[in-house]
Amino acid sequence: MTQKGDTLSLAEPARDREARRAAHLFLELECDRPLAGPARWRLSSLDRVRLGRGGARRSETLPRDLAIEVPDGWMSVEHAELVHVEGRWIARDLGSKNKVVLDGQQVEEGELSDGTLIQLGHTFFRFRTDLPSVGPPSLDLQGPGAIDPLTTLSVPFQAVLDRAAAVAPGRVPVLLIGETGTGKEVLARNIHAQSKRRGPLIPVNCGAIPSNLVEAELFGHKKGAFTGAAQDRPGWVRASDGGTLFLDEIGDLPLNVQAAFLRVLQESEVVPVGGQHPESLDLRVIAATHRDLKAMVREGTFRHDLLARLEGVTLELPPLRDRPEDVPVLLTLLLRKLAPERPDVKLTPAAAHALLAHDWPLNIRELEQALAGSLALSGVGAIDLPHLPRTVIEAPEPVPTRQLSAAETRHREELTHLLSEHGGNVTAVAKALGKGRTQIVRWIKRYGIDVKSLRG
User: Fold this and answer.
1) pTM for the complete prediction?
2) Does residue 386 lie within any of the structural domains?
3) In Å, how far are 329, 373, 375, 439 from 341, measured between CA atoms?
4) Number of domain units in the chain
5) Is residue 343 part of a domain?
6) pLDDT value at residue 100
7) Which residue range(s) make up the domain with 34?
């Protein structure tokens, strides 16, 4: 209790708002067991990690050491170790038959940097230097029940899922924004499932409805309201009564329909085309778009008052390139989904390396298409490099198809300058930046940098 004369402080008490950060090791993919799923270990307070072959995948943490065993016949029983020396992590071969491969290069010993891809036998690990220490110290996603469509090892994406879970039980409108293929409909279905609402989720793609039928499809119509209206139809808004209306690509909704839909949101009632009396609704709306709705408001192509109604809570889904920890999770999930009849599916190390190194500019949808095609081409054999799309295996250097942000433009200029200084030597640039070679290759592809012109 405050005393007379005391003044309450506006300053918030000091608190550790950001989780401490630490190095992490990810087991990304077992080529001979890609359905096993990935795993992750936090390396804080450790001095050494020993890696080798065992009868099953298991790990054991001692006071300062971590031992990891993988059932990979191409690994030696004592294959490699990672040691923490003077603030650096070093990978050392322990006399293994198939050696240690860092970012595609065989080494006896090598310093690890952020994003380094470590290949031991037919198993791929990823080293990360500076990730938030969130969740348990170790997490193994083995087993058929350990992964679902929204399982994530990405801290930023987990924050999005936590916000989604917090708002799911209410009726507050949710706006999902993100690039095409980032999983907006999957998240919308998850929010609806957590809401426990009595009605169904009704998905509507606003860009796929003929412009002259949008109002009738959304709001329903009475018999004889227009040519071809042979009977009453409830429309998608009334069909979602008590449930959730999911409006995908809301930015494609025509302006005149935006005005009508705004009234539906404000009054919680709808008047069908050709009808005279409004009908009450218990409506919850989730909208999604890959477009910049605020820019559309400035251009006059989207109503500001409708946007204000839709963005009760806004959730931004990160592109797959910004949550690379989840590529192995999705590989496992999609292989199980696309080939349930092939529990013994395998990948060659070359194909696995290409999949883990690709930037996936078209996100989860591109990954799913790549795997579907490769499964068809591989038949009953292992998925190999020739089975993957050319965009994945040829590492092209395209001109960026999207407009870069100011920060991305600066980053591209800095990276181009460094590549020029090092004569186009990607490995040298990776070392100078303290990053893995794979990460530099991802940036080169993302920004469309012509490395060949910088060599020599």
Assistant:
1) 0.83
2) no
3) 19, 16, 11, 34
4) 3
5) no
6) 97
7) 21-140
